[in-house]
Amino acid sequence: MPTQSIASPQLWLVSVAVLLGLLALDFVLTRRPHDVGMREAVGWSAFYLALPAAFAVYVWLAHGGQAGIEFVTGYVVEKSLSVDNLFVFMLLLTAFAVPGPLVQRVLLYGIAGALVLRALFIAAGAALLAAGSWAFLLFGAVLVVTAAKVLRDALRHEEERAGPGEPRATRLLRRLMPVTDDYAGARLTVRRAGRRALTPMALVVAAVFLTDVVFAVDSVPAVYGVTSDPYLVFATNAFALLGLRALYFVLRNALRRLRHLNHGLAVILAFIGAKLVLHWAHTVWPGVPDVPTAASLAVIVLTLAVVTVTSLRRPRPAG
Question: Taking a C-beta distance cutoff of 8 angstroms, is the pair 219, 272 a contact?
Answer without folding.
Answer: no
